[in-house]
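Many introductory courses stop at the sequence. We go one step further.
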Amino acid sequence: MKILVTAFEPFGSNALNSSQEVAALLPDAIGECVVVRELLPVDFRTAGKQLRSLIEWHAPDVVLMLGQSRKFAGLSIERVALNLMDTANPDNSGYSPVNEVIHADGATAYLTTFPVRELTEGCHQKGIAAQISNSAGTYVCNCVYYEALYLIAKNRLPVQVLFIHLPFIPEQGKSPDVAKEQLATGVVEIINSIVNLCIYLKIKVLWL
C-alpha cells in the first residue's frame, strides 16, 4: 500500500508552514504502508496541476493532504471540499481569486471518501486532539482538496482522499500552536487508521 502525503510551502509573511514541518517528521513506512512526501506550492493556478501529476506519477492508494490553519489546536479532519476559490489574501504568485469556481463541470462540493467521525473518535481514544471540520475554507488548501476529489470522481480512480488542517507550531510564534512532534504523532495515528480501513474495505469487497 502506498500513501502520498502532501504539504505546503510557507506563504505570505510566514517563514515556516506547519504542514511542511510535520510532513518532514513522518517515517518512510508505517507498517506495510509506504509513505511518499511531496511539497505543493501555495498557488491557485499551479498547485492543482502539480497534485494531479503527483497522483499520476506515484499511483498511490491514498492521498493525505496536510495544510495549515489557525482554527483549532489539534487535527482538523476536513469532510468537504467546495468548488470555490475566494480570498482577499493573495497566494504566493500574487493571485487572489474572487468567487471563482475551480471546475465548471464539477460538483458544487465533494465529500471525502473516508469516515471522518470514526477517524476523529480513533484519535480521541489515543488522547490526540482532533475535530471534524465541515469547511476547508476557500483558499489553496480547499482548492487542492477539491482537485483531488474531482480527479478521482471524474476518472473513477481507486484512490482514497483526505485533508487535515494543522495548527501553528511554537517555532512560528503564533497561536494556537502545538509541538510538531505531537502533530506528527497524530498524523501517524490517522495513517494507521486509514490503512486499517483500506484493508477492511478490500476484504469486504472480496466477501461480496
